């Protein structure tokens, strides 16, 4: 009967399949070989299928055994995850961390921090929300996330800010775009005949303000990937994080524009911040993520 199946039988089955023999499985599990054979025999009787062909020198998985092995692996993974999550609950570890992320923050740095978090808290799920400008703070205030990474410094007594890094941005256009053909400072009059590709701000906090918008003719897009694609296609020009366009600048697909309203070489700098609710202290995994993120920043000092 299937109700009699035990996790131990399944682990024995998996160990025999992975090690290649009953003897090797017995050594790995620190049991006598007869106990391994007995466990497999009982499992086969309960499942009413032969899991191993024992006619040769070494036991070989039968077609039925190979099929059921995949199910057993999946089940044991879920059981281990359940145990890890239950252990985490006992220690007050979060089930999930949601971070509202401004898309201009360098994703490689985020990835390094998440790699550390995954090793330390493998049972904690991680979720990101793409939230430009004030949308990160809106998500935080409305309880839609645990942490926010933003490129603006809205002051709110309910939110604690921590400076992360400055992100360099540059005004660029495709190499064949008319604006790319001059090295003279580009003022409003020269930009007026060309479309500026700008990011849409969905936030009520900052949606009425334009950041870095200097051209009267503009197209709005929802994300930097679309923005970059349109600029590369020659539709218009715009400002993008340098970390996102290093290869295109190096290969000559994109050219910096000397926009007069920006700094030298059309560059602007945005200070980014890590934010969380004052009334909701970070749990163990959230604290570990914060420390890993700070440690992953350029020229970061070890977190003490």
Automatic annotation (TrEMBL):
Domain named HTH lysR-type: residues: 5-62
InterPro entries in the record: LysR_HTH_N, LysR_subst-bd, WH-like_DNA-bd_sf, WH_DNA-bd_sf
One function term, GO molecular function aspect: DNA-binding transcription factor activity
Family matches, as Pfam families: HTH_1, LysR_substrate
UniProtKB keywords: DNA-binding, Transcription, Transcription regulation
SUPFAM superfamilies: Periplasmic binding protein-like II, Winged helix' DNA-binding domain
UniProt superkingdom: Bacteria
Signal peptide: none
Similarity-based family: Belongs to the LysR transcriptional regulatory family.
Official protein name in the record: DNA-binding transcriptional regulator, LysR family
Source organism of the structure: Paracoccus alcaliphilus
